[in-house]
Amino acid sequence: MTDSEEFNNVTWDIQENNNNIHMHDNNTKALQESTTTLDHDPAVLDPLSDIDKTLSQALSEDISHSFHKTELSVTEQNDDEEDAPHVNVDISDDPLDLAHSNDNILDNHHYTTTGTTRTPPSTNNTSNNNSTYYYHSDHPTTATTGASSSSLAATSSSFATTTTSSTGDSDWKSILVVDPRKENEGAFITYRIVSAKTSFRRRFQDFVWLYNVLYNHYPACFVPPLPDKHRMEYVKGDRFGTDFIERRRISLQRFLQRIARHPILRRAEFFIMFLESPEFNDASARALREGQETMIDTIGDSLLNAFAKIRKRDERFVQMRERVDRLEENLNLLEKTQARSNKRTDELSHDYDEFAQSVRGLVKHEGDIELPLSKFATALEEYSRAMKKMNHHDALWLGEVHDYMSYYSVMKGVLKLRDQKQLDFEELSDYLQQTITERERTLHPRSGDNSTYNIAGYFTGKINEVRGADADKIKREKVLRLDDRIRELQDAIEQTHEVSTAFSEQVKREDDFLARSKAQEMRDALEDYTDSKVEFFQQGADIWRDIANTLEQME
Amino acid sequence: MNNRSSTRASCGCTIDRLLRQEEAYIFITGAQKQSDTPAGKTYIAYNIRICDTETKRRYSEFESLRRALSRLHPTLIVPPIPEKHSIVDYAALQTRVKDDLPMIEKRKRMLQTFLNRVANHPELGRDHVFHRFLESGVAWSDVLHSPPLSQLPKNPLQMVVSKEVNAQAHKYNMILSSNLIPIPSATYVLKSPDPRFEESEKFTFRIANYMSNNLDKSQRKVIRRLGELANDYAELGAVYNGFSLNESGPVANAIEKIGQAVDASYTESAQMVTSLEGEFAEPIQEHSQFAHIVKQVLRFRHLKHAQMEMIEGSLESKKENLDSLQRMESEARRLEEAISRERTIGSNAVDIDELNNNHSSQVDASYPPRRATKTWASPVKMINAMGHSLQNIIDVDPEATRRNQIGKTKDAMDVLQEALEITRKDLSGASAELQTELDRFQKEKIKDLRDMLIAYAKIHIRYCQRNLESWQEARTEVDKISI
After folding, report:
1. Which residue in A500, B333, B369, B383 has its CB near the most CB atoms, within 10 A?
2. C-alpha–C-alpha distance, residues B224 and A348, integer Å
3. What ipTM does this complex have?
4. Which residues does the UniProt record annotate as the domain PX (chain B) (predicted)?
5. Is residue A123 within 8 Å of A27, Cβ to Cβ?
6. What is the CB-side half-sphere exposure of residue A313 using CA atoms within 13 A?
7. d(CA A71, CA A49)
């Protein structure tokens, strides 16, 4: 019991020192690994790219997704007479992989971040190293483009922008979605995507592809949401209504601009391809993309752990989560009330029109004041027109609010995934602890007061005696095996922890980025919103002042 | 107390002088709950002030004043007062009606408009009854029980209304209230209607219809929607304010300012609803009431016209009656002359006549129908017989009766003739006055409409201006968001 408590403490230690994540004894080893990888970067790259696609895909999946389910699957080893579980870190029968399994994962993982750690890392640098970590599985990209070095370059440069996040921020404004056009006799609509360099037409499906690949390859990033599919419009048949298309165009533009503002996503191969590839719509390119788009199923994991609670709550994320919940609630309420007043204003403008009609009708009966009446009616109509225009901007703001809500639900999804990562780590730690306890018991069978174990141990001893085996030898072998497993587990925990921590760090950065991005978007949106209000009331005051003067002069 | 009956000329009383001042305006300065006896029913008394004369009148007294004015001047368009509570209102609010502040405010506004409209009316403004309404220390019931109101005929057709006729106004006219004068019913169809007034009636009807069915409805819709929108803004403002609490820094400030601007929109919208209600919706209501009053005045003229035509009619029939009586009289006279001539020719004939007469009288008494079958010896005998039988049928002294009737008919015709002259003059005078009144009213209505439109525009200017200011502030705050 005392032992387990001690280990417990170690675990907490790891948790609490996020900046100092490596377990004390493993610290230097990890750093060495990281530097070795750095030293022969091209060498590492080559074998890696030689590994067939499925393996690399599998590897990247392992990184992206919870580790222990696929990789560190806990299985009962039947060839072993022990009933203790064994950790299998392997994912394939490939001997190379077996040998490298752990290292590969680490390599793969470190290799994305090596750009910064060119100087021999100190503890401080390690934290930096980790803090720049993000999930980036290069292999599919490499396979697609066939240029691994460029992929690396892209990766390191994206890292560079991560640290100096605000450089080149203004580029995003040049990305526009314009000129929606019906294609193929109205089967679908294409939009012209204008970027700084080029301009191509893309359809909604292409946006969906972009979203999916980004979502799959950058699980720790808040990938901006796409506008809803708007199923109702399909049903109602006004899928290609001007109003609908215009709203979608604005949302799509917002989607691209959000990506372009994102320090990591804007460097993504997929995004650049989407913007700039002339062959994007070739049949072969399309077929190739199908593969990238396949969703990696994370549901299984989430379901398995749906009822598991994180034991060590990270206050930062708890707060983040609470903040998002509050914001969502606010936005939800805002959308609802804004939509209502929007509708009412629309009705009001119609009422003014109707009233104008009535005033015009009065001319028929009161011919004596024809001129004032018709001028007044004109003023009413102008006012109503100005109101409609203002209301249109209100509707745009409403769309903005709506897109915000989807952005926040993306954030919530990522936060959930982060919890998952932490859960993985915690479960592994539990398992390690169990294994260690078992080793202790094997070494000192009678020291503990656990009667159950003693009985079991006694029986095992007896059976072994019957078999004529050397009890000491068996015990020694078992301890050795357990030692192996503990080592493996410690490695795995280290990785998982690293993954979890790095994920957390990225989420933190994403949150900062989103806050900045939001301020930017909020300002633009609120500018438009308040501008249209100011313009409307200015116009209104002018219209009414005009008509009041005209009427007063008509004695 | 000055109790003399009001005339069309200036009465020269204090109130009259006050009203003739430049820029004289009557204000309703307040309204209080009052009760005459400690345990009595409470009512709302309105404080009326002109210059420094102040008096208190209750709604029912306003109502009574309006009724009095329209009875005194049936050809004038007496401005409307706010409508009574409907029974529905009473049922819904029960005893709390008197505490209904918006209603009291509305009445204050509309009663003030009423008083000033009367004061500015070229004739009503000079009516002493109106002056006494404004005078302090005058009990309204005293005014009601003193001339001219106490002497006012029940039916306005029984008095002379126009200045054309040189007769005392606001009193029973001896001739017009004679029982010989026919009283027309409202359904009477004029034989020769005046096309001008027929047109006026149609016009008024059309306008009233349009005003209440179209214009009033559509402007009401705008006001109602504005009210709903005001509520939406109230809610939206709260949402923004809550939102700003979850943000920080300049974004929070900007959203807070937007919340304040939306709140201001709420206040301004609510304010605009009240203003439009008072300065546009109420005048439109007032005008549909006006249309109703115009119809009543036109109806009175219609009755006056009907009265004249009916007098003409009965004069005509009296004349026919008289003619036949006179024809009979002269026939009888001719007969008598012929008889007396016959008498001088032969006395035998008289005996025969006498015999015959007696005989036939007896026969007539027992078998009257057989008279026709008789064969007459001579035309003289036949005529004689006829004369006697006529006398027997009508009465004992047919001649006296006939003469009496002729006299009566002639008297009646004299009265009718006089009445016809009066009504004819009165009608033409009243028509002319009514026409002037209608023209004046139309002009006033046009002016009112224009004023209403201007008020509508000004309310909107204020609304836009206020909103503009608060949104400009919000706009400035948005600019402070730095990225």
Report:
1. A500
2. 9
3. 0.78
4. 1-141
5. yes
6. 8
7. 21
Between residues A462 and A161, the one the model is more confident about: A462
- The 10s digit of each residue's pLDDT in A414-468 is 888 888 778 888 888 888 888 888 888 877 765 445 555 556 666 666 666 666 6
**Total Cβ atoms within 10 A of residue B241:** 16
What's the CA angle centered on B134, arms B130 and B137, to 5 degrees? 125
How many CB atoms are located within 10 Å of the residue A469 CB? 12
A chain contacts of residue B479, beta-carbon cutoff 8 Å: 527
CB contact under 8 A, A327 and B246: yes
- Are residues B214 and A358, on separate chains, in Cβ contact within 8 Å? yes
B29 within 8 A of B47, measured Cβ to Cβ: yes
Please choose, from the candidates A140, A116, A128, the residue with its C-alpha nearest in 3D space to the C-alpha of residue A61.
Answer: A140
Assess whether the previous peptide bond of B148 is cis (omega < 30° from 0).
Answer: yes
Strand extents, DSSP E, B322-380: none
Closest CA to A508 of A13, A165, A131: A131
- Give CB contacts under 8 A, 24+ apart, made by A342-347: A342/A391, A342/A394, A342/A395, A342/A398, A344/B225, A344/B228, A344/B229, A344/B232, A345/A387, A345/A390, A345/A391, A345/A394, A345/B229, A346/A388, A346/A391, A347/B225
- Neighbour-count burial of B305, counting CB atoms closer than 10 A to its CB (0-12 exposed, 13-18 middle, 19+ buried): buried
Mean pLDDT along residues A179-206: 79
Give the minimum alpha-carbon distance from B438 to chain A in angstroms, rounded to a whole number: 14
pTM exceeding the 0.90 threshold for the entire prediction: no
Rg (CA), chain B: 38
The owner of tokens 């009508």 is B394
Report yes or no: B85 and B97 within 8 Å, Cβ to Cβ.
yes
Task: Please state, in angstroms and rounded to a whole number, the distance separating the CA atoms of residues A543 and A379.
Answer: 6
Per-residue pLDDT of A36-84, as tens digits, reads 333 333 333 333 333 334 333 443 444 444 333 333 333 333 444 444 4
Closest of B101, B82, B83 to residue B31, by C-alpha: B101
pLDDT tens for each residue of chain B, 483 residues long: 333 334 445 677 878 888 877 778 899 998 888 777 777 677 888 999 888 888 999 888 999 999 999 988 888 999 999 887 666 666 665 555 556 777 888 888 999 999 999 998 988 888 888 988 988 888 888 888 888 888 888 788 888 877 767 766 677 777 777 777 788 877 888 888 888 888 888 888 888 888 888 888 999 999 999 999 999 999 999 999 988 888 878 888 889 999 999 999 999 999 999 999 989 998 888 888 888 899 889 988 888 888 888 888 888 998 898 899 888 888 888 988 888 887 776 555 445 445 445 544 444 444 444 444 445 556 666 666 666 666 666 556 777 888 888 888 888 888 888 888 888 888 888 888 899 999 999 888 888 889 999 999 999 999 999 999 999 999 999 888 876
CB–CB contact A526 B232 (8 Å): no
> What is the DSSP code string of B309-334?
HHHHHHHHHHHHHHHHHHHHHHHHHH
Residue A190, strand partner residues: A181, A203
Is residue B228 within 8 Å of residue A346, measured between CB atoms?
A: no
Residue with tokens 């391809």: A273
Q: Which amino acid is at A349?
A: S
**CB nearest B246 (choices: A326, A340, A554):** A326
The neighbour count for residue A150, using CB atoms within 10 Å, is 13
Q: Which chain B residues are closer than 8 Å to A361 by Cβ?
A: 210, 214-215
Contact of B31 with B45, CB cutoff 8 Å:
yes
**Contact flag B457-A327 (C-beta cutoff 8 Å):** no
Distance CA B126, CA B13 (A): 10
Pull the structure tokens for residue B330: 């002269």
CA distance B238 to chain A (A): 10
